[in-house]
Structure formats: C-alpha cells, structure tokens
Amino acid sequence: MAARWYAARTHSAQKAEKELTNQGFRVWLPIIEHERVTRGRTVKTQHLLFGPYVLVAFDAHRDRWQSINSTRGVDHLLPVKSCCPVPLPTGYIEELRQ
Predict the structure, then answer these.
(1) Which long-range contacts (CB under 8 A, 24 or more apart) does 17-23 make?
(2) What pLDDT, in 10s, does the model give residues 41-52?
(3) What is the pTM of this model?
C-alpha cells in the first residue's frame, strides 16, 4: 500500500515539521504569502494555511506512525481518540500542491 497524507494538530507547527522530518516522515507545512502596501511600502507576511496543523505522509500498514503522537511539537494525529488515524481523501493534497 502506498503512503497517504494525514493531518496532525500541533502546538508548534515549525517544531513539529522539523522533528517529523528528522524521523524520516514526509511533511508538508503549507505557507501562504500575503503582500500589502502600508504607507507606501510593500510588506510581505507569511501565514500557515491550515493554522496549527501539519500534513504527514506515511503508509499506516508499514511505517511506525505511532511515534508521531509523541513527537515534540505534535499534539495528535486526527481524529482525536481514535485507534488509527484517518487519511485525507486521495488526491486532495496533490491538488492543493499544484
């Protein structure tokens, strides 16, 4: 079975992204940039697209995904209080990335 994308709620998205990447997981932390003109100056800001959530790809049958819930920066995989995480719809993240 191929890797699927899952959502994880975090209390520090950047820390969670770094820690999960260090563990070998494929992680996507979508950031959107805003540009606005304030007093004649262009100001660029970045915001997390999904707020406190990061997206993690893994094969639930092959990978040791349980370690994600105890990773620094991560609160839990979704859904909460479930024995197994539920993957996002197939193709959803691929569409967003385009």
Answers:
(1) 17/54, 17/73, 18/73, 19/71, 19/72, 19/73, 19/74, 20/54, 20/56, 20/68, 20/71, 20/74, 23/67, 23/71
(2) 999 999 999 999
(3) 0.86
